Amino acid sequence: MRTRILNALVLIVTAVLVVVLSDRIAVRASGKSAADQPPAAVMPIGKPLQIKAPLGLPPVPIPPDNPPTAETVALGRQLYYDPVLSADNTISCASCHSPDTGFTDRNKVSNGVGGKKGTRHSPTVINSAYNTLQFWDGRAPSLEEQAKGPIANPVEMASSHADVVKRLQADQRYVALFKQAWGTDQITIDLVAKSIASFERTVLCGNSPFDRYYYGHDKNAISASAKRGLKLFMNPKKGDCAVCHTIGKDYALFTDNKFHNLGIGADADGNLSDLGRFVESKKDADMGAFKTPTLRDIAQRAPYFHDGSFPSVRDALGHYVGGGNMNKHLDKEIHALDFLSFDERDDILAFLDSLTAKLPDNIGPPAETAKASK
User: What residue segments make up the domains of the chain, in order of their start?
Assistant: First the structure.
């Protein structure tokens, strides 16, 4: 009898526990208890914005937790050009990624707060929406994460995420702008980064003379020299440039979004001054490898390569003509192009010039920022 009673009590207690646990699970799933679940991501509340890709580009990839709106893009544009993100209010995103210089700068390596010099040339923001990884070494998985990096870098903006949030939170103008864009009075570094990233996704370069010729079928859009240069660029037995700077059937990113060792920075003994992607991946194959940059608007973006070591497009082409600097990690696709005649080299340069296009409106400094800088 006693055993039956104990067994019955065990069944009752078990049933009660099952009900309690089920209720807790249901409560968590329903979102009724904020304490029992992580806070939901803050989403934009403004007017949805369709970012239209120009001729020659695919649809712009949009992360599900950061759909662009007119308000977040406008806020991101304001933040992009505002030196308030830096420790001493001297450096903005645009200091190293200026629209006047193809959204990069003219320095071999960029200067940060107090004139501190970085170790690499500023990569362009143009078409960075299509990058699968950000930075020359791919250390950021998204534009949102990339936007956070320079703020806390001691040789760039030299601030901290907490200090930036504090400064923005103390500015009633920004409090109002974040409220309008995100529906919250609480500014966070994630909302700062998401806003900047939304703006950067609008910095697109397409509808160039090349695009109108290749995708728009306008036979007169580029010169005869540029047409010859395009063939040389794509020919595996000639320039073979498109093996890394890809041209597709429907669009051309002019990057394979991969990392390659071109011998840049290698000395006469093959020693590398910058280990590149290897620092992130720890893979031997990535030693001295850097992300393939897009060639869009390339004529406006001197100097070239990750260390800014070549002052002109012609000089950069000359590096490939010579077969790169030898080192044991040199990419297998790199080989001397010294068999190209001088006329053929000029044709390739003419083709590269055809990739320059008018950038979108409303990506320069906002009116109030431009006025304040005068």
Answer: 2-36, 70-204, 209-353
Q: Distance (Å, rounded) from C-alpha 127 to C-alpha 251? A: 13
Q: Can you give the pLDDT at residue 369? A: 65
Alpha-carbon dihedral of residues 274, 101, 303, 247, nearest 10 degrees? 80
Question: How far apart are the C-alpha atoms of 198 and 285, rounded to whole Å?
Answer: 33
In this prediction, residue 374 carries a pLDDT of 44
Strands (DSSP E) found in 101-212: none
- Residues of the chain scoring pLDDT < 70: 1-40, 369-374
Class of domain 70-204: mainly alpha
Distance from the first to the final alpha carbon of the chain = 94
What dihedral do alpha carbons 37, 41, 42, 44 form, nearest 10°? -150
In which element (H, E) is residue 260 found? strand 259-260
In whole angstroms, what is the distance from residue 139 CA to residue 136 CA? 8
Q: How many helices (H) and strands (E) does the chain have?
A: 13, 2
Residue 207: CB atoms within 10 A of its CB come to 18
Name residue 272's beta-bridge partners: 266
- The fraction of the chain above a pLDDT of 90, given in percent, is 85
Q: Which fold has domain 209-353?
A: Cytochrome Bc1 Complex; Chain D, domain 2 (1.10.760)
Asked whether this chain's domains 70-204 and 209-353 adopt the same fold, the reply is yes
- For residue 163, the one-letter residue type is D
Provide the CA 289 distance to its chain's centre, in angstroms: 17
Nearest to 94 by CA among 129, 125, 130: 125
What are the phi and psi torsion angles at 225 (to 5°)?
-65, -45
* Residues 184 and 174 sit within 8 Å (Cβ to Cβ): no
